[in-house]
Automatic annotation (TrEMBL):
Protein name per Swiss-Prot or TrEMBL: DUF2975 domain-containing protein
Keywords assigned by UniProt, alphabetized: Membrane, Transmembrane, Transmembrane helix
Highest classification ranks of the organism: Bacteria, Pseudomonadati, Bacteroidota, Sphingobacteriia, Sphingobacteriales
Regions that span the bilayer: 12-37, 62-87, 107-125, 145-162
InterPro entries in the cross-refs: DUF2975
Top-level taxon: Bacteria
Pfam family of the protein (one): DUF2975
Length: 176
């Protein structure tokens, strides 16, 4: 009986998520850039995000808020780029390699950084709201900040376990 491997399915799903996040990051960057030269476009940014009131009140705050959105969207895309890279380099005969370890480590560091920047963005947005400025659905860009911090910690532990697997694999190769 032939077993069905889930790895090709996850590989395809990773590509789909990666491309979707790239499109999101590019769309946010594009609409932001257009809005800097045409202020009325600040009323209809990515997926109906309306920051025209913030743009009118403080262009600098608008730039900072959108910079957070662009950075966070881009970092999420980079995380999935590393996931896709793992599936491209994965060798199930010798799964423990330095290359895979480095990719897993990068995923953990980018996840921790995404969570940290998400916390900063949330604090910045809270301050804007306390000052009476309307930020609309911009809060959606850093909603998963806690999950990214947790994920980064878990993946960091997995990277350390993977490091130990590399050591054991090398030791096994030397004894054989």
């Amino acid at each position: 009986m032939k077993t069905i491997s889930i790895i090709p399915v996850i590989r395809v799903l990773s590509w789909i998520v990666f491309l979707g996040l790239c499109i999101k990051a590019g769309a946010v960057l594009f609409t932001f850039t257009i809005s800097l030269y045409n202020p009325p476009y600040a009323a209809d940014l990515y997926q109906g995000l309306d920051l025209s009131i913030l743009y009118s009140a403080s262009r600098l705050d608008y730039i900072f808020l959108m910079a957070f959105a662009i950075i966070l969207s881009s970092m999420q895309a980079f995380i999935f780029y590393f996931v896709v890279s793992i599936f491209e380099k994965l060798n199930l005969v010798r799964p423990f390699s330095e290359e895979i370890f480095l990719l897993i480590s990068k995923i953990s560091y980018f996840s921790l950084a995404t969570g940290g920047i998400g916390l900063l963005a949330h604090q910045f947005a809270d301050q804007l709201v306390k000052n009476g400025l309307v930020i609309g659905k911009a809060i959606d860009f850093w909603e998963g900040r806690d999950a990214f911090l947790f994920m980064g910690g878990v993946v960091l532990v997995i990277a350390q376990i993977f490091r130990r697997g590399i050591d054991l694999q090398v030791e096994h190769d030397l004894t054989v």
